[in-house]
Amino acid sequence: MTTVEVPHGSRSAILTVSAVIEETPDSRSIVFDVPAEFQDKFAYKPGQFLTLRIPSEQTGSVARCYSLASSPYTDDAPKVTVKRTVDGYGSNWLCDRISAGDRLEVLPPSGVFTPKSLDHDFLLFGAGSGITPVISILKSALTQGSGTVVLVYANRDEASIIFADELRALAEKYPTRLTVVHWLESVQGLPSADQLATLVTPYTSHEAFMCGPGPFMDAVHRALQAAGMPRSQVHAEVFNSLAGDPFADHTPVEVSDEEAADAATVEVELDGETHTIPWPRSQTLVDIMLAKGIDVPYSCQEGECGSCACTVLEGKVEMDNCEILDPEDIEAGYVLGCQAHPVTDTVKIVF
Q1: Under 8 Å CB-to-CB from 168, ≥6 apart: which residues?
Q2: Exposed, middle or buried: residue 202 (CB in 10 Å: 0-12, 13-18, 19+)?
Q3: From the first residue on, what is the mean pLDDT of each consecutive set of 10 residues in the chain (351 residues)?
Q4: Do 152 and 200 fall into the same domain?
Q5: 301 touches 322 (CB < 8 A)
Q6: Quick check: 125 and 44 in contact, CB under 8 A?
Q7: CATH classification at residue 291
Q8: Domain count, the chain
Q9: How many CB atoms lie within 10 A of CB 245?
Q10: pLDDT at 1
């Protein structure tokens, strides 16, 4: 029994595991019971993730992000799915130790791997456990949207297909709107960019969402580019292990009078509201928004999760760490709020 009673920060909550579902020999889903007082805090969008605090004898704890495989429109409770990785401390701990009734510390849902509208036609790619945010989008689009959905799902073999029964049932329920293409390495080998390009050519008007190992996503990116899909229609989810502690409360950074006098000015649009605030050049956008009491989306503050991604509409910023963003994303104006510093005296940003 894993029992945690006191959160390590004001943003997180202690949730009870209501069920553990064995999905495949090396993956399981963890369903959380969200009490009434946290329902608003843990409302989520299709494709978002939860950050779990996992005990560690060496470091006290580690933080790991796991995508929500549930849909806010079709599932009664949030569910994350965890697949073992060979040397993955977090995934193995969760697969070995967690049972119904255990309690875990969890940060509210986060992430920008989510459609702006569910009425698009969607071209979805998942490989292995990369299916988790993808199936959330898939179920949401089928029940709330009006378009068609094509899923290309790659796995080692038939036994490793997570959600096989659920996908089969959905294909039967939505025969004219859902197409599922399984790609098994044991039968077809690893998918190449050329093979995928042939497969996706009829769907270049769709919105593409992908999640999976790096080589798979590289192949999908090349395939979509070769097929002529505009980069603005392509969305990728990337996870890295978090080294810091996103559960700790944010500590405001002291600003000298000299730095305050030289601060830039930023106009930030978030959730339909516009905020105009001074932006000292040594501080990040997330720093200054939190200091002003603005509920900015963020998780790791390391530039590793993409939760704080936003778009520069006017002005220029520089980033400490931007490896999670593709060059095309940066060219399109995407920045990470937790890594961004102002270059110009005025900046306009939208989340």
Answers
A1: none
A2: exposed
A3: 72 96 97 97 96 86 94 98 92 96 95 93 97 98 98 97 98 98 97 97 97 96 96 86 78 82 95 95 94 87 86 95 83 92 97 92
A4: yes
A5: no
A6: no
A7: 3.10.20.30
A8: 3
A9: 16
A10: 56
- Give the distance, in angstroms, between the CA of residue 296 and the centroid of all CA atoms in the same chain: 16
Q: At which residue do the structure tokens 């998918």 appear?
A: 191
* Nearest to 107, CA basis, from 185, 15, 13: 13
Sheet containing strand 334-336, strands side by side: 273-279, 264-270, 346-350, 309-314, 334-336
Q: Which domain holds residue 215?
A: 122-237
Structure tokens at 133: 């945010």
Same domain, 343 and 290: yes
**Contact, 206 vs 233, CB < 8 A?**
yes
- For the whole model, what pTM was predicted? 0.87
Asked if 102 and 136 sit in the same domain, the reply is no
For residues 96-115, b (16+ Cβ closer than 10 Å) or e, as one string? eebeeebbbbbbbbbbbbbb
